[in-house]
Amino acid sequence: MRYRVEQLAAVCDVSVDTVRYYQSLGLLPPPEREGRVAWYGAEHAERIREIRELQRKGLTLAAIGRVVRGELGPADADLAAAVAAARGDTGSGELLSLEAFAQRSGVPASLIQAV
Q1: What is the pLDDT of residues 91-103, one digit of tens each?
Q2: Are 28 and 47 in contact (CB under 8 A)?
Q3: What pLDDT was estimated at residue 95?
Q4: HEC letters along 23-56
Q5: pTM of model > 0.90
Q6: How many Cβ atoms from other residues are within 10 Å of residue 34's Cβ?
Q7: What is the spatial distance between Cα 6 and Cα 10, in angstroms, rounded to a whole number?
Q8: pLDDT tens digits for 79-89?
Q9: What pLDDT sits at residue 89?
Q10: What is the rounded CA–CA span in Å between residue 88 and residue 69?
């Protein structure tokens, strides 16, 4: 299946701007090009669905980027989502040291490192 950006956005129930934003962040691979026409495939639709699901779990776009690049496994993503949900995280994007993260999350630093 091939989609133009408007079709992809409609299929995934997001805006065209959202598709382009995800692409600008490196969350979505670039489309195939035929001249001036950009074609997106089923893999793009699946990636957008994955991003939206991870957002619903409470992950920030920065954390989602790490997941889709393979820097975090599914278990790590679930742990991050659980901690975010427990904290009522609003996704401010603030970077924390290991000690600060452990203190705020209530999870021992040694456990965080082990995961």
Answers
A1: 555 667 778 877 8
A2: yes
A3: 67
A4: HHCCCCCCCEEECCEEEEEHHHHHHHHHHHHHHH
A5: no
A6: 9
A7: 6
A8: 777 777 766 65
A9: 57
A10: 25
32 closest CA partner among 2, 76, 63? 2
Please report the DSSP string for the chain in residue order.
-EE-HHHHHHHHT--HHHHHHHHHTTSSPPPEEETTEEEEEHHHHHHHHHHHHHHHTT--HHHHHHHHTTSS-HHHHHHHHHHHHHHT---------HHHHHHHHT--HHHHHH-
Residue keyed to tokens 């603030």: 94
Q: Which residue has the higher pLDDT, 43 or 102?
A: 43
Structure-block tokens of residue 31: 């489309």
Stronger pLDDT, 52 or 77, i.e. the higher one? 52
Measuring CA to CA, which residue among 9, 10, 36 is closest to residue 28? 9
Rounded CA-CA distance 110/115 in Å is 9
